[in-house]
UniProtKB/TrEMBL annotation:
Protein name: Peroxyureidoacrylate/ureidoacrylate amidohydrolase RutB
GO molecular function ontology, one term from the record: hydrolase activity
Isochorismatase-like domain: residues covered: 11-104, 121-201
Species for this entry: Paenibacillus konkukensis
CDD domains, A to Z: cysteine_hydrolases
Pfam families tied to this protein: Isochorismatase
Gene behind the chain: rutB_2
Enzyme Commission number, as recorded: 3.5.1.110
Amino acid sequence: MNYTSPVWSASALITIDTQNDFTLPGAPAEIKGTSQVLPNMKSLLDAYRAKGLPIIHVIRLYKEDGSNVDLCRKELIENGAKIVAPGSEGAELVQEIRSSEYVALKADELLPGGLQAVGPMEWVMYKPRWGAFYQTVLERFLRERGIDTLVFTGCNFPNCPRTSMYEASERDFRVVMVEDAMSQVYDKGIQEMRNIGVLVCGTGDALRAISL
């Protein structure tokens, strides 16, 4: 038995931090390359929506007083930088990945740990640090729905996607990294993911697998 092979029919698609302030050209915290992977992310999202499979958009929200911000960025926010501030347009998901039912994010629900529905099988979830599982209800949410495979896309591989994939692996989820639907990917990182049993593939391969 191959314990790490994806079970696509029991998978969820995860997008990480694909918000205006991190994605749009010229945005205050733009991560280079994120806008370029949006077409691949959209293709995967469309496929998951068509199949009725779960989608979770994991995001950051930085309170303007810096009270919930990582230590490495805390001073920046305290000094007045407004990045993914609750209630701001910069905190919203980029237009390209929104569902047709998308509504503005509700920070008062997300910050305490709730998930906001933005489609029939689609939710947004706030994470307070790099990893999607750290101080969140994500694992319980997935287990309750019989999900055993997580397919990762989104913004800035070295930080939040990488950490989230390690966290998923240590919780015995099967993990897929779609390398051309994620920004800031590099060769050594791909090898490190493969070393822990992550399937690293392209968007085309993932779409073919989902369609079976």
